[in-house]
Specification:
This protein is an alpha/beta fold. It folds into three domains: 1-91 and 253-370, Isopropylmalate Dehydrogenase; 118-231, Rossmann fold; 376-475, 2-Layer Sandwich (Alpha-Beta Plaits), CATH 3.30.70.1570. It has helices spanning 12-25, 39-43, 52-61, 80-87, 106-109, 147-164, 181-193, 206-215, 227-240, 278-291, 294-309, 327-336, 391-401, 446-456; strands at residues 2-6, 31-34, 63-66, 92-98, 115-121, 131-135, 138-141, 168-173, 200-205, 222-225, 248-252, 257-261, 376-386, 406-413, 416-419, 431-438, 461-471, 474-475. The strands form three sheets. Strands 2-1-3-12-11-4-5-10-8-9 form a ten-stranded mixed β-sheet, sandwiched between helices. Helix 1 (12-25) runs parallel beside helix 12 and helix 8 packs parallel to helix 9. The longest helix is centred in the first third of the chain and has 18 residues, at 147-164. The radius of gyration is 26 Å and the shape is elongated. The chain binds 1,4-dihydronicotinamide adenine dinucleotide. 1,4-dihydronicotinamide adenine dinucleotide binds at residues 11, 15, 68-71, 81, 244-245, 260, 263-269, 275-276, 279, 316. It holds the Pfam family Iso_dh.
Length: 483
Amino acid sequence: MKIAVAKGDGIGPEIMDAVLSIFAANKVDLEYEFVEMGKWVFDKGYSNGMTPEAQAAIERLGILFKGPMETPKGKGVKSVNVTARKTWNTYANKRTFQTLHGVDTVFSKAGIPIDITIVRENIEDTYGGIEHMLTHDVALSRRFITRPGSMQVIRYAFDMAQKKGARRITCGHKANIMKLTDGLFLECFYEVAKEYPNLNADDKIVDDLAMQLVVKPDQFDVVVMTNLQGDIISDLCAGLVGGLGFAPSANIGDHISIFEAVHGTAPDIAGKNIANPTALLLSGLGMLRHLGFRENAAVIENALLYTLEQGIHTGDFGDKSKPAVNTTEFAQAIIANFGRVPEQGMRPMMENTVENLAVCRLEKNTMMVSKETSEEKIVGIDVFIESSENHDAVARKCLQHTTDLFKLVTISNRGTQVWPKGSVFTNLVNQYTCRFESVGDQGVTQIDLLELQKRLTQDFKICSTELLNEWDGKRSYSLAQGQ
Ligand code: NAI
């Protein structure tokens, strides 16, 4: 079996060499094809941070094991790490956080064991990076949450939880505020939950989840979340078990999967051979299990846990009264401990977490459509305009342009209604959203909307628009605060 390996930037090559030396010593039967990705590939002029040969190799082999990579600042290029996850549709980011003996934390000292797996949606949300300045004062970010994308990651989370023998699976969300986006994610969660009656499925609002994780982390098992909230909560969980040096990550897709540590290139310690390779090793062990090398993974993980229990540590953690070892010595200590079993937290030989390996050639992109509507109607439009005038003046001008097809129903500023009713205490910025709805039940056409916008441009600069749709008689847009 062959996989693609990219050593990365900064401490990447040091920790990757350490991990591969452990794999070699344990006779892991894998071949490696080293590919060119990272800062120096950007510097060579490849704007996506990888050579075409690297892309071809990863698409052929289906597995990428990677070190951390730096995104050059001020060059207008996007992170190669994010590009890789999005290009290859690795829709589930799985991060496992477990108490490690020898790694002192508030919870380990209190005897509270932690074993939490966060599954974070990896493609959508604000990570599309679709952002625009509407005015000099107002920036807008688009947040995509889709039904097929949510179903993919939630199905993965339930399936993984079942194989892992989890007792509970929790959806973290903010559906009380973002009723359509997070509401859709939560709806998908409970739809999938019906297929797994043996799993105890529940949900928690993300702020409460953050507090509960800090106060009583041992109550959680598997948590599935949207991208941004999952990003923040997974770093919180890394802190619970000792920091980023112990946080592995797997980016799982149907065809290509990427295994990497959560931490970055640590430029402050790069080239010194003092970095902690544990997070990359744990990511590599997740990869070995994914590929079916369960025995190798168990032997190496038990040796790692035994080594940590012995108090052997790199400079970033552990008992400071004991001298730290360097990266190479840490790897050698693990190799010397093959066959040893930790006193606590022994990893079983046969964990039933092997994923379905489906490396295949794709001829074309997959279109994911999950739900068709029977009756569709356009019932209006939100027009985002730039104006420094008072809302009453904006309303007067808007009303001049509404014909018998439309009525002006509300004007909001930063999402809060200011017309027809509002409060003088609401501070304003120079961008309003004016909502026009159709008069009567028959709806309007796109041409009607364009005619309306054409008239509005006589008085305003239009920054953006959104259609107001009704699907099967249900509103597909939110109300303004106070509407
Ligand atoms: P960082 O994770 O590289 O470093 C934060 C702190 O943690 C530093 O003090 C560093 O020395 C320490 N640290 C991190 N990993 C360590 C390890 N294995 N052993 C010992 N100490 C460790 O985060 P930072 O400084 O924000 O980012 C540096 C670069 O890494 C940036 O260019 C960033 O874009 C990139 N990055 C790449 C990621 C990836 O490839 N997936 C993820 C995060 C950041």
